[in-house]
Design a protein that fits this description.
globular, 11 helices, 260 residues, 8-stranded parallel beta barrel
Length: 260
């Protein structure tokens, strides 16, 4: 297990954001209105989710425009709008006015987001979007790899929040090679600590599940984890209520040093 400090005495709890994209994926596979991602969001909130994440992609492969409008109108927790930094998405986000927006890289041919933004290489474009969203009162996060260069670039362009891509940690954990797991965790912990020292709020997500979430939640600077695919997959077998409650328990236990 990756080793780190006990965060309980110094750092606050870590929130859970539930991504409901893949409820919409199931709906769209057959057409029609079922299952309803807004109902899933409401069930996740009832089970303890601190917020809901939804990614409106350019090709609308899962979440649709009307889903975003209904989520804003019908849920009573913060809505985190995942989006590419395009003029279309900027316009929709400003019109929707969600609590938060997470800027992510997007390629039409990918199955899911494959890595973090290159903030250092696209700072002028991202800085404009970060500024416009921030001026509208929307909390902006940048989805980045746990790379010191990208953390520094995020801070430089004025983003108040980063979300660290945990995909490499997920794949390392699947390898069951302790050295690889420790190295991947160290990179996330180092980036989170750097960001915290720069005054950024730190979130993380991608590939997190019941097996690996505790070690990420135990990182002292971590304030929010956004988890979707695993929770929706697990809910097929145990129900969304049970899946969300168990994830909340694991995160809470990790923050108070009760790692298993």
């Amino acid at each position: 297990m990756p080793q780190g400090p006990n965060p309980a005495a110094e750092f606050p709890p870590c929130r859970l954001g539930v991504n409901i994209d893949h409820v919409a994926t199931i709906r769209n596979a057959r057409g029609g209105d079922e299952p309803d991602p807004v109902r899933a969001a409401q069930l996740a909130i009832a089970a303890g989710a601190d917020g809901i994440t939804a990614h409106l992609r350019e090709d609308r492969r899962h979440i649709r425009d009307d889903d975003v409008a209904r989520l804003k109108a019908e849920i009573d927790r913060p809505l985190n709008f995942e989006m590419a930094a395009t003029e279309e998405m900027l316009r929709i986000c400003l019109a929707t006015a969600p609590h938060a927006a997470c800027l992510v890289p997007e390629k039409r041919e990918e199955r899911t987001t494959e890595g973090g933004l290159d903030v250092a290489g696209a700072s002028s474009v991202l800085e404009k979007v970060v500024g416009e969203l921030g001026n509208a009162g929307i909390r902006v996060s940048l989805f980045i790899d746990p790379d010191p260069v990208q953390v520094e670039a995020a801070h430089r362009i004025g983003a108040p929040v980063i979300e660290l891509h945990t995909g490499d940690y997920h794949h390392a954990a699947l390898s069951t090679t302790p050295v690889k797991i420790q190295a991947a965790w160290n990179a996330i912990n180092k980036a989170a600590t750097q960001a915290h020292e720069l005054g950024l709020e730190v979130h993380a997500g991608h590939g997190l599940n019941f097996t690996n979430v505790s070690n990420i939640a135990s990182i002292p600077a971590m304030r929010e984890l956004n988890i979707g695919h695993f929770l929706i997959s697990e809910s097929v077998f145990v129900g969304l209520d049970v899946a969300v409650r168990e994830m909340k328990r694991l995160i809470s236990d990790a923050r108070t040093g009760r790692l298993v």
